[in-house]
Amino acid sequence: MHAGIAKFAAAHLRLVSAMRRWLRKRLPTAHEVVYEYRDCFVISYSPSERGYEGVLAIVPVSPAGEPLGPPRRITTEQAHAPSFSGDSKRILYQSMDKLRLIERTFREFQPEARSFADLGGAWKVNGAYSIHAVKNCGARKGSIVDTDFSPAVLGELARFPSIEAIRDDFASERVISRIGTVDVIFLFDVLLHQANPDWDEILRRYAAHCPCFVIYNQQLVQGAATIRLTDLPYDEYVAIASDHASDTVRHVYGHRDEIHPLYGKPWKDIHNISQWGITDAGLRSVMSGLGYREAYFRNHGIFVGLPAFEEHAFVFVRG
After folding, report:
1. Which of 179, 186, 217, 183 is nearest to 303 (CA)?
2. Pairwise CA distance, residues 273 & 193, whole Å
């Protein structure tokens, strides 16, 4: 413990100590688990020794470490190996639900699968699902596509030469052609962000190249039809879809038809905000029309902070 504080947080010794005292008082029977993760160390409190898995919550504190309010949950799913990004502005974690879904897909739904494409798999998880597929599920070749990779993520992925990192828009035809045919496609937390081309068009484009889609998405559960969220008035969008990225949403609504300098599409179509409220019926209709059957479904509950959405997992298999 002291070595970790000295190495990573020497300037915050009083804050760490105060937080530990407060947490131990609030959680007297919890196991305190300390581990080092990339460029930080993590102190975790858990009912068991498996303190690197659990539901995440954050507590506002003063500079002296005194709590300023109640804990606020930021995940409904089990979070594996939580840590912070290099700039300490984002909490990073791997979803145990998704790790298990990948394992089950390779074991049960596509037991002969040896290749995959992980679309949008760098943001917040640093390629963890691609690495998991190679290390633990028998995958021999994979592609991970995202519009941004930090040097640390690229360094981690370089340890796995069978994984190709592609910095690009996974919706583009050039990326689809580069990936080619694969056995499994992961679409985790990304479909609702896709516009121009829209989420259903992306599924159609990849359907010609893959027999199995593993989808984990925040699905709209208020209303019977899929809706384009950015067609809503600003106040309605914020009320239904946005408990984060408020500055970006405000900018999008003020510059809807201007072309984004990096993505080459109107601001109203960028993937940095939620674009769609996709219903289960809408997704199932598209996949059925493409010739896929639903092999698996699970409702993982309400999406934290957005009661209009629930986190739903699907596996669709061709035929």
Report:
1. 217
2. 6
Whether residue 102 contacts residue 137, with contact meaning beta carbons closer than 8 Å, is answered with yes
Q: What is the pLDDT of residues 167-202, one digit of tens each?
A: 999 999 999 999 999 999 999 999 999 999 999 999
Q: Which residues, listed in sequence order, are joined to residue 303 by a DSSP beta bridge? A: 306
- Which among 311, 244, 309 has a CA at the least distance from the CA of 72? 244
Strands 306-318 and 292-303: what pairing? antiparallel
How do strand 57-58 and strand 53-54 relate by DSSP bridges?
Answer: unpaired
**Cα 130 from chain centroid (whole Å):** 12
pLDDT at 5: 60
Distance CA 133, CA 156 (A): 15
The confidence band for 70, taking pLDDT boundaries of 50, 70 and 90, is low
DSSP 48: S
C-alpha distances in angstroms, 102 versus 208, 278, 314? Answer: 21, 22, 11
* pTM exceeding 0.85: no
- Domains of the chain are 2-73 (no CATH), 96-226+278-318 (3.40.50.150)
| pLDDT for position 49 | 60
